[in-house]
């Protein structure tokens, strides 16, 4: 009788052996981004969060460009051409450091660069993408408005042609990541032809981006309003390859995919903090990790964390195969962000009062995830997307 093969040792950091699904190139991308975040973000992010600032954001962008993290899943124009799984792994490691850093990368690559790459003219691509991939130019994405978040079809920002063929934009956009530091904005507006996207250099007269203060979430991130007062653009500023909501919604789907992975990074960081604390914190004469109730919490957290990572990996493989549907992205975002928040809250209970301290990452991740839960589609919107897909009945209106 043949001997049974020797089983690999159980790895508490990878209890399902998910790393076995990754190629050496995948692991190299993950390790590069993890090392960068450990060196350039983790030692400082608590202070950035407490002060509500992201100092040196332009330098950070250039460094992220140098490791290929900006627009990394796009091809050509200086972009890395990485796989969807590799991009997802990068998002996980960035958000394990802080959601604000992942948001910087996501808005740059999955929204602003993606819009230009997919829908722009060759001249627009050549003008902007190489510099954005290098982090020399930061981009932002103007869709959400003060009165229109989940209902972008009724946006009030509008663009009109004048007699000479120029476009003139007027309107407001709200909650725009990177807005006040961006060199270029992709702005969506109503036109006589339908909703169109415009590539707007931020030094154009009439454009301003006042920064939004007094945030209790995503504090280590630049968030702005975009103000467009008679912003005059040449005829070729419009993205030529798309008309209607299909343009911005396809960009959002790409960004949501990154969130599916990124939210698990925040969850992993909080889970790891809880495990280490449970092994060292003593009550009643022994570490609290030796008590049944604490172990039950840790086991449940581990199950949801690694189920979420498996889901993200599955969606990444589907994206790489060209088979990922928007409804499946909604599935991933809805599940993973909700579970990430629950993991952070449970981790906070294990840390007790220390859980609210910035000496630990847990409360910072929990408050950040409250924003992640809302942006790129609220819980309710993704529930309705899935509800329509399951029943064939539209409950949005």
From TrEMBL:
Cofactor: FAD
Keywords tagged on the record: FAD, Flavoprotein, Oxidoreductase, Transit peptide
InterPro entries: Acyl-CoA_Oxase/DH_mid-dom, Acyl-CoA_Oxase/DH_mid-dom_sf, AcylCo_DH-like_C, AcylCo_DH/oxidase_C, AcylCoA_DH/ox_N, AcylCoA_DH/ox_N_sf, AcylCoA_DH/oxidase_NM_dom_sf, Glutaryl-CoA_DH_mitochondrial
Domain Acyl-CoA oxidase/dehydrogenase middle: 140-231
Domain Acyl-CoA dehydrogenase/oxidase N-terminal: 24-136
Domain of life from the UniProt record: Bacteria
Signal sequence segment: none
Start and end residues of each Acyl-CoA dehydrogenase/oxidase C-terminal domain: 244-390
Pfam assignment, any one: Acyl-CoA_dh_1
Record family assignment: Belongs to the acyl-CoA dehydrogenase family.
PANTHER family: GLUTARYL-COA DEHYDROGENASE, MITOCHONDRIAL
Protein name: Acyl-CoA dehydrogenase family protein
Organism: Streptomyces tendae
């Amino acid at each position: 009788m043949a001997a049974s093969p020797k089983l690999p040792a159980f790895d508490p950091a990878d209890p399902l052996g998910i790393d076995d699904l990754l190629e050496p190139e995948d692991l190299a991308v993950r390790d590069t981004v993890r090392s960068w975040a450990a060196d350039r973000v983790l030692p400082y992010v608590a202070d950035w969060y407490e002060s509500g600032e992201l100092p040196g954001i332009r330098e950070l962008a250039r460094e992220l460009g140098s490791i290929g993290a900006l627009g990394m899943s796009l091809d050509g124009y200086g972009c890395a051409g990485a796989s969807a799984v590799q991009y997802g792994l990068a998002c996980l490691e960035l958000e394990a450091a802080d959601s604000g850093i992942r948001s910087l990368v996501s808005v740059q690559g999955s929204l602003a660069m993606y819009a230009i790459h997919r829908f722009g003219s060759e001249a627009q691509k050549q003008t902007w993408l190489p510099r954005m991939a290098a982090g020399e130019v930061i981009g932002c994405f103007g869709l959400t408005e003060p009165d229109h978040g989940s209902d972008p079809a009724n946006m009030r920002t509008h663009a009109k042609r004048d007699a000479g063929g120029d476009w003139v934009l007027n309107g407001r956009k709200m909650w725009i990541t990177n807005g006040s530091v961006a060199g270029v904005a992709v702005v969506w507006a109503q036109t006589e032809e339908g909703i169109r996207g415009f590539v707007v250099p931020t030094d154009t007269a009439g454009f301003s981006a006042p920064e939004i203060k007094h945030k209790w979430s995503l504090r280590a991130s630049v968030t702005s309003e975009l103000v467009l007062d008679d912003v005059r653009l040449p005829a070729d500023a419009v993205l030529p390859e798309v008309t209607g909501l299909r343009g911005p919604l396809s960009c959002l789907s790409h960004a949501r995919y990154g969130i599916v992975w990124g939210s698990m990074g925040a969850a992993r960081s909080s889970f790891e903090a809880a495990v280490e604390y449970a092994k060292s914190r003593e009550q009643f004469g022994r570490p609290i990790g030796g008590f049944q109730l604490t172990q039950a919490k840790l086991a449940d957290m581990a199950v949801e964390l690694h189920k979420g990572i498996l889901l993200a990996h599955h969606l990444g493989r589907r994206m790489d195969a060209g088979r990922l549907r928007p409804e499946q992205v909604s599935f991933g975002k809805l599940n993973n962000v909700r579970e990430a928040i629950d993991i952070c809250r449970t981790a906070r209970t294990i840390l007790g009062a220390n859980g609210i301290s910035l000496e630990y990452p847990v409360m910072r991740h929990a408050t950040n995830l409250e924003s992640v839960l809302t942006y790129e589609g609220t819980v309710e919107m993704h529930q309705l997307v899935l509800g329509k897909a399951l029943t064939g009945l539209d409950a949005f209106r």
